Amino acid sequence: MDTSPTALFDSYEADFRQFIETIREKLETNELENERKQRKTTLRRVEMELDEADEMVSQMELEVASIPQSVRSSYQTRLRSAKADLQKYKKLLTESRSQLARADLLSSSDNAGAYSSDDPYSSDRTRLLAGTTLLEQGSKRLQQSQQIALETEAQGADILMNLRGQREQIENSRDTLNRADLAIDRASSTLKQMVRRMYQQRVVTGAIIGVMLLLIIVISWEKLAG
């Protein structure tokens, strides 16, 4: 079992790519020609798969924080790429739903061809189409806002990681200074002891010299007196 710091990230990314590939096949192929019921079922499945892919991205975002800083930048790039792909297919799902809703409305309008141009319901259908268009535009703006929020969140996470690294460096420097202070205190104490011993040796040496001088004087006096 791979226990490297990036193993979980790689695993989540592989799952994410599998979901994205399945979603791509369902959304980018021209399935509007199929029956609308089948298309609606496909879009519901795509929505569920996008939820799973979103969960994978969330897990990747959690794992990238524990990756060593020396290699983290490349994984952050991969995370941003995954987020961009996720937003791309969320947008494509919204567009596909809008196209399907528009096709349903147009089909209803075609089936009601027996109505004349002054059909009392035609204005309602026109307003409904206009409302669908406005809803689609609102969804696009919402997705853009979400994308900006995600990018801002990613930048904020990067800043927090950098600040944490700087704090660790400061703490390490402080610990080094504390150790240096202890070493200086020990060296100073050792020097003081050496100076004290030097003075003690000088006193002892002076005393020995004084005794020897006294003995020489006494011996010389006795010889002269004899």
Automatic annotation (TrEMBL):
One example of the protein's molecular function in GO is: SNAP receptor activity
Q: How does it sit in the membrane?
A: Single-pass type IV membrane protein
For this chain, the family text in UniProt reads: Belongs to the VTI1 family.
Q: Does the keyword Phosphoprotein apply?
A: no
The chain positions of domain T-SNARE coiled-coil homology read 127-194
Q: Which residues form a coiled coil?
A: 20-99
What stretches pass through the bilayer? 203-221
Q: What is this protein called?
A: Vesicle transport v-SNARE protein N-terminus-domain-containing protein
- The answer, when asked if Metal-binding is one of the entry's keywords, is no
Which species? Crepidotus variabilis
Q: Name one GO biological process term.
A: vesicle fusion with Golgi apparatus
